[in-house]
Amino acid sequence: MTGETGFTETDLHAYADGELDRATLAEIERWLAETPEAAAQLHAIKLQKYLMHDLYDDGLEAPWPEGAEEMLTGEPGRNWWPGWTRLAASVLLLLAGGAAGWGITQAGSPEQTAGRSFVQNALYAHAVYSHDEQRPVEVSIDEEQLLVDWLSERIGEKLMTPDLASNGFKLIGGRLVSDTGMPAAQLMYENVRAKRVTLYVRKAFEDKDSAFRFISEDGMVAFYWTDGPLSYALTGEMPRGDLLDLAQMVFNDISS
Q1: Within a domain: residue 2?
Q2: Are residues 42 and 71 in the same domain?
């Protein structure tokens, strides 16, 4: 993947790993904001990174069974860990791709299919960015008006930033993400215990308002709905009732 900018997939991995200098970081972020396909690829890279750590970090210090290295490599003492990592990553990507495909291709109405795709993208974005300690948002709350104006322009509708402070969550910023080739906004909120919830917004995936719908996956829960020209998904890692309280606050604030 090389465009007029000269950025490659290697640069996207370096971005995801926090290895770029400040000047390159600013340049690649401008490019990502203008290139939804590259933003989607970065999204996938960060998701893979998060899932790999989630699945395998706990086992890094575990001792290998006696004779395992010799059995797998044919050479005693040879360092085979990097090759195993690549194999695991390939299997993980295959499983993740299969799960995502299953989620959006089951029989159902076009609205149901679009809804599944929308909320899956919201869950993936939450999994990637809410656990990013280096750069969870592109634009911080210090530039809230810039953030709102920029995201509103990109998604094509006026965006609001709901106030959840009365429930202990404050907006820390947001970013632009890609939703099946369309621009979407992700707003991130955090409480004093550093627990985060994300509000994912894009142009409505259905042509009528909808009631709250709920999904639970891999420890995350999300409520999603359509209100007027926009569809919303609020995602967090908390009990369903607690997230529902926040979703109702979002709905009331947007609708008032």
Answers
A1: no
A2: no
Q: How far apart are CA 76 and CA 54, in angstroms?
A: 30
Q: Are residues 29 and 127 in the same domain?
A: no
Count of structural domains, the chain: 3
Helix (H/G/I), strand (E/B), else coil: 111: helix
Per-residue pLDDT of the chain (256 residues; tens, 9 = 90+): 444 556 888 888 888 777 888 788 888 888 877 777 777 777 667 766 655 655 555 554 555 455 544 544 444 444 433 443 443 343 343 333 333 333 333 345 677 788 888 999 999 999 999 988 888 999 999 999 999 999 999 999 999 999 999 999 999 999 999 898 889 999 999 999 999 999 999 999 888 888 888 898 888 999 999 999 999 999 999 998 899 999 989 998 988 7
Three-class SS state of 230: strand
Query: Could you list the residue range(s) of the whole structural domain that residue 145 is in?
Result: 121-255
Angle at 255 between CA 254 and CA 256, to 5 degrees: 95
CB 202 within 8 A of CB 176: no
- The pair of structure tokens assigned to 6 is 């000269």
Same domain for 128 and 250? Answer: yes
Tokens describing residue 14? 């370096």
Predicted structure pTM score: 0.61
